[in-house]
Write a structure and sequence with these properties.
With 699 residues, this protein is α+β, with helices and mostly antiparallel strands. The chain contains 15 helices and 32 strands.
Amino acid sequence: MSFEEVEDPYIFSTDTLPSDRRFLPPLANGLLGWRVYNNIMHMGGMYNGEGGRCHRADVPCPLAVRVESEEPGQNTYSMNTHTGIFTHTLSSASVSVTQSLYSHRHYPNMMVMEVLMVRQVTSEEPITVNLVGSFTPQSKDIVFESGPDYKGGSYINGKVSTAEYPGGSCPAVHLIWTPIPPTLMLNADQSQGRWGFVLVVANSLETAEAKYDESLDLMATGDLRLSHQKAWKELWLQSTVEVTGSDSLCKALIGSMFYLLSAFPSINDTSSSFGGVSPGGLSNGGDGQDYWGHIFWDQDIWMYPGIALFYPKLARSVLEYRVGTVEGARDNAQKQGFKGLKFPWESAVSGREVCPEDIYGQQEIHINGDVTLAFQHYLYLTEDLSMFTEGKGKEVIYGVADYWVSRVSWNPDDKKYHLLGVMPPDEYYYNVNNSVYTNTVAKFSLQFAVELAELLQDPAPKEWKEVADQLKIPFDEESQYHPEYDGYIKGHPVKQADTVMLGYPLGLEMSPEIRRNDLEAYEPVTDPDGPAMTWGMFAIGWLELGEAEKAQHLLEKCFKNIQKPFQVWSESSDGSGAVNFLTGMGGFLQAVLFGYTGFRVQKECLAFSPHLPKKISELCVRGVSYLGSQMDWLLRKDEVCIILREQGQTAGSTKPCDLQVVLKASGTKIPLTPGKPVTFPLEPGCVCKLVSMSFCWPL
């Protein structure tokens, strides 16, 4: 009996590499990032250059090796997202050679190359393949010195040449790797041969040697590859997003989740040295490239929500990154003449502003509210107060609130507080007053500061509530829509999603009519060649209004940004801009995770309001993490099925609560019991605590 081979949507394969090498797949693990075959790699937190010249330091990569044979053969290149392993298979009449490359998912200091040669025909001749590379132990950012070999491994070390700020430290980097010969030979008496090559990168010689020792032990026991595959398997068990009805959408979702997860640390990593997520990820971001590897609002607003829904630990690592930059943020605020914290528009390690152009750091102040929104969502998803106490998260929330209070101006005419001289998310405009997005996110971050202070029984300055209550939120009564800022002329061009983000992710309450008016006002004037994440926000807006087909049309615009064959995103649809554009992937993922499902993270519940477009018959979202429990969701055309996982399978540190589903229209309450499926009609509702007496729907 023969079965037709079904293509695995988790494996991206091709027989020819993309002509534009920028679209080769990145291999990253939250600490090390490398684009396959590139001579250059990067390490999280390794930047060179002061202020606006700061960029990811180029680290030479000894594994930039291609396998070639004198004998003609067939090439196959594969990115297996199940395992995070890129393979090149070269098949000829006499031999099959498979080169495997991966950034180790469990041991983040390690990158690995393995070569397997299998003889195809019986022969007494030796077979040779060439390993072609152009590695030189040099970098324009780091002056390297060679040291003595360590247990057969080559060793170099160096420091970046310029600190991020005057008086700052210049981070060191140490590389130990298995020397790679120019050829590999299968002897006459061998039917197959296997070789392993390890690269270890660390900030100290002591760590590098310890990790190299560990890699040799893992190779000796055969666990090097197995431990990597196991770590990816653990990750995928905690998050699955798959659709039935559109192969291209399913593949795009898998690719987005894979590359986003690759940018985050291991769920087993306890080092707390995470360097944040930049728009192009760790594999990109050198001098003048992909936003220099800086961290923007992209991390907190675009990439974080899709990860936080599944992985509380990874979500916390983003918050810890921001906590680690508090002193720099305080310095930024002081330089602007304000109190509290001003998070940089572009951040590296210290939190001091490293944007090459001053105007963005001075005016694009919505970043402060974007950062606090991530903290707020984390608290609502986990109720983990330790992040705010021992983890010092409250310093972030209170510091941002103090900034807003000192930054606003009182206007006696309308008796409102104003935020003057800002740049909205729509960067076509600057030095405007009362950006509706900025003012709304400021209002909400002030309200959250009051709420957190009450929860922690900390004193809250009365100005926090006063400014929040009286902060102007621009609204055009005549047209019943939100103008982007004071004086915005309806119909003027817009760079990217801005005002439409009031509904989601900010959650500003408004009538369906106003939500529709905002969408209709901005959709036709938004730059069609603008950044990739924009259309996901419009799609979510239309899904809120029940217009799934309109949403699907906008979501499919994103497909133009996905470069085949490895599902690598470009910032713009013509292939230009940042590459491996994680921001776009994050916006796209949110359109499905928060659009199709209607998930909304609220103070006392996880609300849902599902809508599926016609072509999508099924959406499977496994591993949703809420209050210490994990849920698997299956959405079909007319019903929703939820299974609460057995408690042993949960990944959060929070003690699980007893949960129930409450349906909005009927008020029906359905307790969730671990391991038992619960099915109900496709309608809005929420998941909340079983003992909660408060109703979570806004009145």
